[in-house]
Amino acid sequence: MDHSGHAPYDVALLMLRLVIGLFFVAHGVNKVIGGLDGTARWFAGIGMKWPSVQARIAAVTEIGAGLLFAAGLLLPFSAAGIVGVMLVAIVVAHLKAGFFVFAPGQGWEYCATIAAVAVAVAFAGPGRWSVDHLLDISPDTWGGTWASGLIAVILGAGSAALQLAVCYRPAARS
Can you tell me the distance from the alpha carbon of 55 to that of 150, in angstroms, rounded to the nearest whole number? Predict the structure, then answer.
């Protein structure tokens, strides 16, 4: 069923985009305001190969993808940015802590939820209350909503896998 003309559907998509997108922006801004050097030191401690560069890339991706996602602009690509950041976060920081976010070390459930919402919105499309709609960029631009969702999944997971393969060097366990 096509929900694109129903206001409650558009309100739901707008709420999801704003909450996830703006919260993502807040995390990126926090990296900048809190000091990228501190973020870089933390990245070094978890095994990132070029922590200073990666701290900046993470902040820019979080701010940029978050703003685009909140606005509903270039939705499959902004969702992919969110997915990529969350998958890297899961692997480098949260997986070892287990599932629950309240576990010591903060488990991976929260990051997975954010990624899942980004993918779900990419599959649904941005809705009428989005910049994509204002610019007449429909999911059909990307090949339909199936393609939009798959772009978010494949590009997000692919970028995460590439970053982990090239940049992640965790300390050997003793």
Answer: 27
What is the pTM assigned to this prediction? 0.92
CB 39 within 8 A of CB 27: no
Cα Rg of the chain, angstroms: 17
48 forms bridges with which residues in the sheet? 168
pLDDT tens per residue, range 42-93: 999 999 999 999 999 999 999 999 999 999 999 999 999 999 999 999 999 9
For residue 141 the two structure tokens come to 């631009």
Residues 46 and 95: their CA atoms lie apart, in Å, by 12
Domain limits, the chain? 7-167
**105 CB-near residues (< 8 Å, 6+ apart):** 93, 94, 96, 97, 98
Half-sphere exposure of 84 (CA within 13 A, CB side): 27
